[in-house]
Amino acid sequence: MxxxxxxxxxxxxxxxxxxxxxxxxxxxxxxxxxxxAALLPGVFVYGHATRIALTGWGxxxxxxxxxxxxxxxxxxxxxxxxxxxxxxxxxxNGWTAEVAVAHAETGEVVLAGSIGLxxxxxxxxxxxxxxxxxxxxxxxxxGTAREGLQLGSEETILARDLVxxxxxxxxxxxxxxxxxxxxHSGCLIRKTMGxxxxxxxxxxxxxxxGVGVQHLATAPVGVEYRTSARITRTWETGGKHYFETEEWLxxxxxxxxxxxxxxxxxxx
Length: 268
Fold this sequence. Notes:
Elements: E1 7-11, H1 27-32, H2 42-49, H3 51-57, H4 59-64, E2 65-71, E3 80-85, E4 89-91, E5 94-103, E6 109-118, E7 138-139, E8 150-151, E9 156-157, H5 160-170, H6 176-180, H7 185-197, E10 200-201, E11 207-215, E12 224-237, E13 240-251, E14 254-267
Parallel strand pairs: 7-10
Antiparallel strand pairs: 1-3, 2-6, 2-11, 3-5, 4-5, 5-6, 8-12, 9-12, 11-14, 12-13, 13-14
Helix pairs in contact: 2-7
């Protein structure tokens, strides 16, 4: 078992991008939503949390690793962060450790969860349904998200230039992605999230609240990808409306990762 780092120190960086317009990742929209400035995308914070797994387990983690995270506090551009992990524990099918990301100056925990490495990647279901993206998109109002709703997607080639842009966004320095022509775990979340949400018109810019990830195989650059997604759960608490999506990403006809993602989509 390769040694995993116990602690990493990172500075949150949010580079301006045109695609952030109208989202919580630009100052104007974030302030209208009650935040003091643009939020670092949750997928970036996820990427920081899983760097411990990537540094220690490398390509094995990209092929059969897992993670479960919940975002607890906003992260802003320039925030100093500390990533820590707990003791490795043996489970029935691999290893797991608690992981946390905290603000280095205040100690406030901004992400909590776990990382793990399966002995063997689980088998995906057969014949995952693949639909076209809704046209027109389905408008959701608070409380109208429906469990079991299957969502559509279109085939997209994740080409080298797009993947390199994603690595730059994440400020990722691990050489494995360039050396092995593989796609970053955070880029895969971006892909399935974009595919699923591309079917919907929501009352506000969605806030990424948490995700469970199970890698099934490495994801190569330059292949056609498509997402099989459905809404699996809906709930409301304190006027905040959520839905959960299960998203399987396929490279050609081969599933490479499963995401179970929690989305805050309305506040009443």
